[in-house]
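Quarterly update, task 2.4: 1,3-dihydroxyacetonephosphate-bound model.
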Amino acid sequence: MLVSVTEMMQKAKAGHYAVGQFNINNLEWTKAVLLTAQEQNSPVILGVSEGAGKYMTGFKTVAAMVKAMIEELNITVPVALHLDHGTYEGAKKCIEAGFSSIMFDGSHYPIDENVEKTKELVALAHSKGISVEAEVGSIGGEEDGVVGAGECADPKECKMIADLGVDILAAGIGNIHGVYPANWAGLNFDVLAAVQEATPGMPLVLHGGTGIPDDMIKKAINLGVCKINVNTECQLSFAAATRKYIEEGKDQQGKGFDPRKLLAPGFEAIKETVKEKMELFGSVGKA
Ligand code: 13P
């Protein structure tokens, strides 16, 4: 069932758990995430960066693939197809292409411009039943060409954006895309608490879910995080399992080179990572 994130976020807020956003890159990724969500009876959000959208030949291809897969795999749990760190133009394209949710990342603009563009996209998306995530402060590191300095969000600016009627809000709290460096200072829970205080009831989004220790994840959920994004961790699991298969020479045994065999261990590894995250986030059985 393809839905916006609105209802799943309200339920997560009320139930004190978070729904995982897992970024997809291709058919194997999409199938692995959807099947795991169904097996775990968990709501799920499929994240698509602009780079991944381009890689999959465009947002229309992605939307068509996801919709057909939901039907043909008999996926009955709530699934949102969500643009990740979208530009203004990319957000409009996804609204046209049939995504059920978009993120407009205007965090690199001056706040007034972020407000103006977010406001316009909220009106457009909501007129079609599509949910909107906005961002204040920035996520450190790099993801598919989107680079952030990692500055923490200003709660006053968060309120300005929340007041526009966005459905979910990503606030920088010291989180970073990719693997965390050894000297990482950790999540800034004071900022997270101040952001939620300035935006009562707003479901907050935690980007950079890869490698955040379990206790920090749980504390963030307690302080109002309802959506957690995971990308790199599935990529690392997939790569490690594929490497093992090849290093063991399995691609050279019989028809081990068949892509359906070659990609199978990586596919299973993504499923395992997604399952672990759903258990940690508390979304199992919440569909
Ligand atoms: P990671 O790649 O660090 O898991 O971050 C994912 C993310 O925040 C997607 O927007």
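Highlight for this quarter: The longest helix spans residues 264-281.
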